[in-house]
Amino acid sequence: MEATAAARVVEHATCTFCGCVCDDIDLTVEGNRITKAKNACVLGKAWFLDHQPEDRRPEALVGGEPATTAAAVEEAARVLATARYPVVYGLSDTTAEAQRVAVEIADRLGACLDTTTSVCHGPSGIAFQEVGEPTCTLGEIKNRADMVIFWGGNPAESHPRHFTKYSVTPKGTYIPNGRKDRYVVLVDVRRTLSARAADLFLQVKPGKDFEVLWALRGLVKGVAIDPAIEAETGIPLATLEALVERMKRARFGVFLFGMGLSMTRGKHYNAAAILTLARDLNQFTRFLAKPMRGHGNVTGADNVVSWSTGYPFGINLGRGYPRFNPGEFTTVDLLVRGEADAALIISADPAANFPQAAIEHLRRIPTVVLDPALSATARIARVAFTTATYGINVAGTVYRMDDVPIRLRPAVPSRYPSDEDVLRAIARRIRELREAPVPASADARAAG
Amino acid sequence: MRSETFILIPGRSTDQGTSVGDKSSAQYQEVTRRLRVNPADLARLGLRAGDRVRLRTGSAEIEVTCLSAGDELPSGMLFIAYGPESSRLLGGETHGTGMPDSKGFQVELIVPDPAADAGPAPPAFRA
Amino acid sequence: MLRVVNGRVYDPANGVDGEVRTLAIRDGRIVAEAELGRNAPTLDARGLLVLPGGVDLHSHIAGPKVNAARKLRPEDHRRAPPVPRTPTTRSGVMGSTPSTFATGYSYARLGYTTVFDAAVPPLGARHAHEELHDTPVIDKGFFVLMGNNEYVLRCLGKGEREKLRHFVAWLLGAAKGYAVKLVNPGGVEVWKQGGGNVKGLDDVVAPHGVTPRQIIVGLTQAVAELGIPHPAHVHANNLGIAGNWATTLETMRAIEGRRAHFAHVQFHSYGGEPGAQPSSRVRELIDYVDGHPNISVDVGQVVFGDTTSMTGDGPLGYFLHNVTGHKWFNGDVEMEEGCGIVPIRYKPGSRVHATQWAIGLEWLLLAKDPWRVVLSTDHPNGGSFLAYPQIVRLLMDREYRKQTMRAVNSKALAKTTLPELDREYSLSEVVIVTRAAPARLLGLSRKGHLGVGADADVAILSPGPDWQQVFEAPRYVIKDGAVLVDDGEVRGDHEGRTYHVEPPWDPAILPELRKWFADFYTIEFENYPVDPEYLARPERIATVTG
Fold first, then answer.
1. If I label C142, which of A360, A390, B32, C444 is the partner at 20 to 30 A Cα–Cα?
2. Candidate from C335, C522, C527 with C-beta closest to A166
3. A262 interface with B at CB cutoff 8 Å
4. C335: left (phi over 0), alpha (psi -120 to 50) or beta
């Protein structure tokens, strides 16, 4: 007879797949598998339902060989404590609690500290430092926004519930009729699936976002714009003029911008242009802006790193205190220049998504990797920990893309430790090693 | 062998998002090697959906499978889902930001000669 | 255990004014000397001044607004001397918005041991608690923003005063906050609706049909009925606007004898016409405050130099952005509040800034009852808390004050009473406005004094001719009985308490609240309250109804 475990339901669970961080998911659990994820989008369903209780994976690998967590902690601490210019990187797919320990390790090591922000909305963070950001939580968009402009992003595929939960269709205090009360614009180089959700789609030539944004700023301020803007950007001047009139007439407008701005030539200039355009429009009405952050807790990484060090990413602690310099202390640069001599990588996969030159250096140096999956980065690691998955196995805190912190409700247990547990153990061991200098023989092993 | 310069946009897609949980899966491998091409560009290059082409930058050369982009892309622009393959094309220069040029960069699209193509596509595809 | 001997003790709450006394410390508290064993270690404080630890009842040190300011100001961090890590402490940055660890150590190094953040939106409460967890040494807590909460406005619009009271209690408990804060009541909601502001107490805020007056009266009343230890903490309407003294006075009158604390009152004491040069109307306001023991204020002293304005007052942030032309952060929080952040430099030559500077000092020097007029810089709005020693010197040292005034816009000073004021604070009075009074106003019976039963939070200073130096570099700082700062060096990490209140409320309000959340919030009602495990060393302070 087949025994079926009684199904139980974990209500109000939180999906950490993307920056929407939807916390209204009801998870049905049978045995140690999640069999239903009510309210989740297609990405969320894959996140929850495809979650494998990977009991057969070893809890850690050292030099590619199975090892106990304890042995791996020992080796990880040795690698990091003996490094001269280590980098602590990743952090966007783990809890704020784990992020705090990772920052503590970086501080203790005098390491570089960087997160996946540097390769997603890092330039938007630089723009924030330059010009500020008029912004709001997502509920303000739901309740008040009668004009929503998506720019350089494809939320239909990257943040599938954004339209229905926050920005396009929901009804709110001042938007009683939902979609009917909103004018939705998409500006992008591609006519993506998101274009179907928009009242107006503007197809901009690649690399010309800044020119369009700057022309709009000019029009808002009453500056005459050369009709040649159309040949330059692909968008007719009359269209831009009409858009500006509509923006000024809106009661509450918002730009939601994606990595089409931050990853394209111009980068922080593009982001600063959209932030200042939003700012300028406040002379006429309320107009706000918000980057569409990607990973579940990349916003948490920004917050934790900022409150601990004063800077959001690209930090060096080598002099005993935080210094910020993107381009110097950011991970891609550290690796491409061949500078870092060890790395602690938490819940990120640079070996799969960094430039080739960076990956080549990553292969040369000893790395310590924490990841629930056997990622490309874990495969080339000196020490790889299998950790439990946040939000599915592990409780903790996640910051939504609008900086709203949300508590996780794990649904199923894992036999693997959490990132936080492993990092705490590494931190403790590093402290011991730093207090009692590592014997020379261990140094010799590190070189070999 | 013919080649032409295009602008490549790597980005997220639903297929990529639902398969990223297991990057070793056949689905993810396939999804991240699909290249969307404007139909007019496909026709001009004598390509059809399913044909294999190569993309080359100063950093790497990768092989991908063509797919018609319908009306999504203007002529001259290509789309590929983020993945290890698209990332290999990135250069390491960040212009002082920490961010490599990760969208909207130039690639060379290389159409291999049918004779030299050792790929599995049947000749009928080339008609 | 510790016996602090031979020091001159200043403990005005217990009537001790510079007498040589022994302080007996056991288990983190002040105890009777007889309770200490003979072998208790001794700290010889001969020739030193022994004060209770400092208490800051209005500062901005944690939460979404503070962290946005940290992100906004890399140039500010870079200019300031860094805080290097030590074997036992964490590194950090300073400037007007220091990192969390640096904040805790820096307050402790000044002899401050208890600090409250004055403005946390409930939706960001979890964030604030996480930061407080990473803010070492000091005891702490925060006030919960409610003056533009749409549920508050709705209850008041419908005249549902009892429901409001239960909601206030529920919200304080959900946020694990300490007191009720009002910021520009009604005005922030108007700003969020279309970019405007309220102009006076009787402007009607749509769609709820309530006025700032009703919000202020309703919330001060609810706080009183709930017996929350700290009265409603009010950032009044029209902050920074010339002529706002009338609004301030009207607000004080509006509460009709209920208790209220008026925050950073310096920013609310201006004569003149809106848009024109502000003048000082401190005297009129002080006359009222002197005669009304239900009212207390903190000053919000301006300090010349670079700082960051950060406020829950969204329209004020935009106003300052337009005035200064500096970069601007605005953060509207759904259903609850707003936020504005702008870098600002107070210049001694500026007529406006000089007037502001003088007004703060007028408040401190003219007030008859130091127990109700306490020191703050509204850190970092008027200036950093690091300026407290300098302000103490301005209060204690008339010659220094006069000398400082020479570099300050003389036209502005001439229109204030400051040049005529000869008063010098005694050390005991300084202890009142920086320790004893804020502790009493907060309702923290174990803070701000050194009597038996008090927490052993002690600042021990080396006397000298320059009071700024004396307060800048305490010889020792004792927290919970342990010497944590020795000659300016933070010796070890220490987790401070988190104070909060949980007044009782009627579960009958829940069904409607659930629906409210489902309709208008973007997070689940069930995920909204902060779980107890977020609090570092929680200590719940009792509310007293009656």
1. A390
2. C522
3. yes
4. left
CB contact under 8 A, A321 and C95: no
Q: How far apart are CA A50 and CA A37, in angstroms?
A: 11
Q: What is the pLDDT of residues C108-153, one digit of tens each?
A: 999 999 999 999 999 999 999 999 999 999 999 999 999 999 999 9
In b/e form, how buried is each residue of C133-143, taking b as 16+ CB within 10 angstroms? bbbbbbbbbbb
> Got the DSSP string for B30-76?
HHTTEEEE-HHHHHHTT--TT-EEEEE-SS-EEEEEEEE-TTSS-TT
Are A251 and C194 within 8 A, CB to CB?
A: yes
For chain A, the average pLDDT equals 95
Q: Which residue has the tokens 């030193």?
A: C48
Q: Residue C2 belongs to what H/E stretch? A: strand C2-11
Mutation site, C60, C61, C71, interface A, largest A CB count within 10 A: C71
Q: How confident is the model at residue B20 (pLDDT cuts 50, 70, 90)?
A: very high
Residues of chain A found within 8 Å of residue B79, distances taken between Cβ atoms: 190
Are A356 and B59 an interchain contact pair (Cβ–Cβ within 8 Å)? yes
Residues of A in contact with B23 (CB under 8 A): 349, 352, 373, 375-376
User: In this structure, what token pair is assigned to residue A87?
Assistant: 């980098």
Interface mutation vs chain C, best among A163, A306, A313, most C CBs within 10 Å:
A306
Q: Taking CB atoms and an 8 Å limit, are B99 and A353 in contact across chains? A: no
Q: Which residues of A touch C524 (CB under 8 A)?
A: 12, 23-24
Binary contact (B72, A260; C-beta < 8 A): no
Return all residues near B82 (Cβ < 8 A) that are at least 6 apart.
A353, B10, B11, B12, B16, B32
Distance from C-alpha of A268 to C-alpha of A128, rounded to nearest angstrom? 9
Is A324 within 8 Å of C77 when comparing Cβ atoms? yes
User: Which subunits have 3 or more CB–CB pairs within 8 Å of chain A?
Assistant: B, C
pLDDT bucket at A4, cuts 50 / 70 / 90: low
Mean pLDDT (whole number) for C91-111: 98
Helix (H) or strand (E) holding A364: helix A356-364
Q: Which of B78, B103, B106 to mutate to test the interface with A (most CBs of A within 10 A)?
A: B103
Residue pairs spanning A and C at CB distance below 8 A: 188
How many whole angstroms separate alpha carbon A432 and alpha carbon A423?
14
Number of H helices, E strands in chain A: 18, 20
Task: Look at phi and psi of residue A275 and say left if phi exceeds 0, alpha if psi is from -120 to 50, else beta.
Answer: alpha
The two tokens of residue C201 are: 């107490």
Specify the pLDDT at position C448: 98
Nearest to C467 by CA among C394, C366, C546: C394
Of C98, C100, C127, the CB nearest to A405: C127
Contact (CB, 8 A) for A355 and B100: yes
Note whether C229 and C501 are within 8 A (CB).
yes
pLDDT of residue A436: 65
Cis omega (within 30 of 0) for bond into C380: yes
How far is residue A244's CA from residue C324's CA, in Å, rounded to a whole number? Answer: 26
Q: Which two tokens stand for residue A299?
A: 């916003």
How much of chain C exceeds pLDDT 90, in percent?
A: 98
Interchain CB distance below 8 Å, B103 and A43: no
Which residues in chain C have Cβ-Cβ distances shorter than 8 Å to A323?
78
Q: Is A292 on the interface with B (CB under 8 A)?
A: no
pLDDT tens for each residue of B41-67: 999 999 999 999 999 999 999 999 999
pLDDT in the model for residue C275: 84
d(CA A443, CA A273): 50
Task: Determine the Cα–Cα distance for residues A167 and A136; give it in Å rounded to an integer.
Answer: 12
